[in-house]
Amino acid sequence: MAHCGTLFIISSPSGAGKSSLIKALLERPSADGKLQVSVSHTTRAERPGEVDGIHYHFIDQPEFKALIERGAFYEWAEVFGNYYGTSREWIDEQLAQGIDILLDIDWQGARQIRAQSPSAKSIFILPPSRIELERRLNARQQDSAEVIKGRMDKAVSEMSHYNEYDYLLVNDHFDQALNRLSAIIEAERANTDKQAIRYQDLLCGLLAE
Ligand SMILES: Nc1nc2c(ncn2[C@@H]2O[C@H](COP(=O)(O)OP(=O)(O)O)[C@@H](O)[C@H]2O)c(=O)[nH]1
Ligand SMILES: [Mg+2]
Questions:
Q1: Whether residue 86 has its Cβ less than 6 Å from ligand 1
Q2: What are 38-86's pLDDT values in tens digits?
Q3: How many CB atoms lie within 10 A of CB 22?
Q4: Other beta carbons within 10 Å of 13
Q5: Which atom of ligand 1 is nearest to the CA of 13?
Q6: For 138-148, how does the pLDDT look when each residue is reduced to its tens digit (9 = 90+)?
Q7: pLDDT digits over 97-140, tens only?
């Protein structure tokens, strides 16, 4: 089947609720296997509750460098002192099957994807306020105070890239943000060129003389 899935880039500062939104999006009945999230490779340490192969593929620096050299990554970047990368092979397979892919990546990765795949759609998620962002970073209780302070500084620099994205959402009311995110994805699925590939047989039958 011809290539008809869409790449959706989703970025936000740490603590804006992006992971919860992505999780809820995938659990929606409308996702129905037609939407998948890419599992990145990272050199950062596994957090309690994280599972290798589900949240990330946890690898060490030499392994990461070897993957870069092999050209295995669609994009990769250093974020908060650790390396993160999106592997190319799995994504290309999914897109070819008409499956849409969510990429939870930072602004550096978003730039690299846009340069290679101009049809990718990008969405930036903002927290409702700076105070709420701080509260969410503290509520997580998984990282040290020093790490949280570092993330707060980085959050501001991440947010300064909001205007490079196609869509901007504020995660104030979770359900509302989820509905809007879902609406963006559904609208893109209905793109005529993509539907023409998906519904090739239907169109042939409908248009038969
Ligand atoms: N460029 C790039 N960024 C990634 C990738 N995977 C995760 N990130 C970003 O790295 C940042 C840190 O992610 P993480 O370690 O999960 O901490 P989080 O802030 O709690 O989500 C987030 O902005 C992610 O979107 C990737 O494969 N490539
Ligand atoms: Mg994350």
A1: yes
A2: 999 999 999 999 999 999 999 999 999 999 999 999 999 999 889 999 9
A3: 20
A4: 26
A5: 23
A6: 866 677 888 77
A7: 989 999 999 999 999 999 999 999 999 999 999 999 988 888 66
How many Å lie between the centroid of ligand 1 and the Cα of residue 33?
23
**Is 13:109 a contact under the CB 8 Å cutoff?**
no
Class of 7-207 in CATH: alpha beta
Q: Where are the beta strands (DSSP E) in the chain?
A: 7-11, 35-37, 41-42, 57-58, 73-79, 82-87, 100-104, 121-126, 167-170
Annotated domain spans of the chain? 7-207
* Pick from 85, 158, 166: nearest CA to 127: 158
Q: Model-level pTM greater than 0.85?
A: yes
Helix (H, G, I), strand (E, B) or coil at 50: coil
